[in-house]
Amino acid sequence: MDSSLSVHAFLCRLPLKRPVPVGRSVWQVRPTVLVSLSDAEGRTGWGEAAPLDGYGPDTLAQVVRAVQASDWEAPLPSLQCALGSARAALGALQTGRPFLGTPTSGSTMGPAVLDGTDGVEAARIVKVKVAAESDLSRLQALLRAHPERLLRLDANGAMTRDQALRLLEGLGADIARIDFFEEPFPECFRADHRAAFPVPLAIDESLDGGNWQHADVCVLKPSLMGDPRTTLHRARTMQAEGRRVVVSSAWESRVGMLMLAHLADRLGDAAPGLSTYAWMADDVGGADPLLTGPSVDLRRLPALPAPLVHPSRSSFPVEVLR
After folding, report:
1. Which of the residue ranges 37-46, 173-182, 292-301 would you say has the lowest mean pLDDT?
2. Taking CA atoms, which of 149, 236, 249, 250 is between 20 and 30 Å from 47?
3. Which of 52-61, 191-200, 268-277 tops mean pLDDT?
4. Of 44, 55, 45, 52, which is closest to residue 78 (Cα–Cα)?
């Protein structure tokens, strides 16, 4: 860490509208760590460490311990994401260059919405969790109710290969309205199964090294992958190899969500998975209405990730870590 920079970190427990199952636990609040880096002129860049215990490669407790010990080189992807975002934001303030590079020509995103999210009725693309062939009737009902809607299926590896194929077969002509099938069965991407599936296959939590080459779509959770500038470079490598890249959230606050929106814009992802923000009952300075709803207008978003107010002025308790 540059000794000329001052570092502050805050543990926030964001209230949720309803409980959220994550791994083997259920969240009543979303714990996350906001990090700020300030230079001698008072310019400040913000980042967010939003680990998913039991899902991502690190945990909240590990991030908190590293921050309290000033271990800024700790190999914790969530912490490195926060620091990388804060450095990039501070660099943008110091140089006048855009955060994470030049924006694309797009102005509006239509984020994919997780089924069960408030406002799902207005969404064009909905992500649906599936676990068995018996989910077929639910999918058919969703497709009938909204003839213009596309579905993204996500099994989280809960099905077998044959079950996943039979589920798709049961959709008949509606299979054309499946945007992609994410993680259909365990170890799907140890080999290339794309030729056997009538819809694009998407890799998410099983992403490991180069196994993304066995997928059509790479769903990336940048908050769990380290410095967002490195993630951006990796994503562009995937795109250069003909893969579609979709940016996905990990239940971040406004700080992390703004970073994700800008990163998705740089990748040309017009339908990122950013709907988790709609589950937040509150945020530091209040929930940002620009990040909810069926579309996100990039022209109205702040140029840099930051909380609406300083965490010390939050309406809910915030713990100062340093």
Report:
1. 292-301
2. 236
3. 191-200
4. 52
Tell me the C-alpha distance between 298 and 171, whole Å.
35
Domain carrying residue 11:
6-101+310-320
**SS3 label, residue 5:** coil
- Report how far residue 279's alpha carbon sits from residue 193's, in angstroms, rounded to the nearest whole number: 35
What CATH number is given to the structural domain containing 186?
Answer: 3.20.20.120
C-alpha to C-alpha distance for 9 and 136, rounded to whole angstroms = 46
Closest to 86 measured CA to CA, from 225, 228, 291: 228
Three-class secondary structure of residue 18 per DSSP:
strand
Q: Are residues 137 and 215 in the same domain?
A: yes
Amino acid at residue number 177:
R
- The full length of the chain comes to 322
Q: What is the CATH number of the domain that holds 81?
A: 3.30.390.10
Is the pLDDT at 215 greater than 80? The verdict is yes
Please report the sign of the dihedral spanned by the C-alpha atoms of residue 173, residue 174, residue 176, residue 182.
Answer: negative
Looking at the structure, do residues 125 and 51 belong to the same domain, yes or no? Answer: no
> Helix (H, G, I), strand (E, B), or coil: what is residue 224?
helix
- Comparing 40-44, 107-111, 157-161, 208-212, the range with the smallest average pLDDT is 107-111
pLDDT at 21 over 90: no
